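Deliverable D5.2: sample structural annotation.
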Amino acid sequence: MNILILAYGRSETNKPKTEWNINDGQSISNYFSENNFEKPERYGDSHVYKVYDISDLPNEEKLDQDLNKIIEKYLQLGNIEVEFKKSVSYMKLNLDFFEEHCRVSGLTYSAQLITRYVASLATKPFVLLSGLSGSGKTKLAQAFAQWICESEEQYCIVPVGADWTNREPLLGYVNALKNTEYILPENKALELVIKANEDTENPYFLILDEMNLSHVERYFADFLSVMESKDKFKLHSSDTPLDGGNGIKVKKEYGWPQNLFVVGTVNIDETTYMFSPKVLDRANVIEFRINAKEMKSYLSEPRIVKDLNGEGKGMGRSFVEISKGATKANPEELSDALQQFFIELKEIGAEFGYRTASEIQTLFSKIDSVNPEYANKTNEKIDIAIMQKLLPKLHGSRNKLIPVLTALAILCYGKKGDKKLSEADKKDVFKKRGELKEKRIYLISLEKIERMYDNVITNGFTSYAEA
């Protein structure tokens, strides 16, 4: 009959102990009958999930996604879950599952935000989440770690203290009274680094909450250095591992393994410090904002947020493999956009270097790896890269920024055909933002540039973090 059926299996010979949690699932027997096929020899009681035409099968990626979805449904059935999960040690990363599990647990994050976050982690293991206090920054970092990790020992949330002036709160120190002992930080940060070095196939997450309550360059200097140099954290000078207590032996040095990811959350107010270009240059910065529609939805449906609990742990190794891949993409559209933005940013000394350009090329590729739906969305990927890697260093006075913000805003509109701006449109690009809406190609970046423009007009000064 030249068809392939993916089905919710159901035994015809033994009464099932549990039933699929589906609504009005059509049986294979009924499907055959409706399509004038002969009665199926087997599996007639099973329920149809998808039917494929053999002559026009979807690609392997799509088939894998469909199969993973039905497997995930199986994992939710109850008593059989425990034993089956033990045998499912590897599944391909699928962010649709994470988005759905967030929704069920009471968390609402857009598919685009989830893709940006996970792709950024896979690009470089240092991501900053900035924005409004209480907008879900820490919760996203925690939720993804809980979802993809097999054990709570694979992640820890560390509140940054305002008194952190050196590396000891994260990396500990040698006991000055007994140099055979090493004092580990109580927040478990160093233990996480050690475990990640010992178990390089599974992901580990260090979440630094309120990261800018203290000067980042002081307590995080070793991480910033090791991240770029591929050197090691040097903890002590003894060739013999020191006693860290609880059976932990601390070697004199550890590397930053590719399965260790650091996420920092950032609030901007009078109690915090601004990040230096050195820090911003080494991270992907993702801004959190809440719009009126999202707030209305939240207020109309009060919800209790539940923790995620390893629902995606079978995908942890797949995520690490994606992160280890050194792939880059450099289509002509990306190269042209970067060249144009470089020229404009150079006018105020906010241009980017080779590292940023290289990381944008990597981010471009990683977005496709974590979410294949972006394969043909070139403008959307360029938009994400501009917002996360090029705009964060923007700051300055009205006289300094207005010409540059105007030029950057113009670059966010189409270059060809009916999307191309006229000279009159370019001159009044901010005044005409409403009527030019259909010509936008970089939506996220343009919205940010417009907020910065409004802020600098009102206050005489603005920065990426404050707009």
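Annotation notes: The two ends are 60 Å apart (CA to CA). The longest strand covers residues 47-53.
The annotation will be released with the project's public dataset once the embargo ends.
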